[in-house]
Amino acid sequence: MQTRTLLLLSLGCGFAILIAGAALLLQLSGSDDLSTPAPVGSVVMVGDMAVTVVSAETTASSVVVDLRLGGVDDPDGSRSFGLIASGTSYAPGGGDCDPVTVATRECAVTFDVQVGRDDTALVLVAERGESRTRWVLPAG
Hints:
CATH topology of the largest domain: Immunoglobulin-like
Number of helices: 1
CATH class of the largest domain: Mainly Beta
Low-confidence stretches: none
Largest sheet: 5 strands, antiparallel
Mean pLDDT: 87
Helix content: 10-25%
Radius of gyration: 23 Å
Strand order of the largest sheet: 1-2-3-7-6
Strand content: 35-45%
Shape: elongated
Structural class: alpha+beta
Order of helices and strands: HEEEEEEEEE
Number of strands: 9
């Protein structure tokens, strides 16, 4: 092949890659934002568990989240939750949510975390299987 033919083929391939990238950007810009936090007070299905965040109380050394859980039998249901504060993830440090049963009941999960004055948001995350949901909690 001649050099001119190879140059034209490479330009054609580059143009095809450019068109594919533009199409992907258009597709991504038109998709719904799946990372919208769930509203506090509404029932949300996280995998097989029905979760309602009732309220959250923040102190200097902990965050206590009141929940309504049900829909599944799980002896370690509170392990599905985590808290993100100041960019750091925290596991539950206590509470009375275990075991989770099919019948819906109210319980509390406690996170041992130092909440600073500049923490504008606390994010509660629940993850079961491939399902993940988050709630933005008030920091004060």
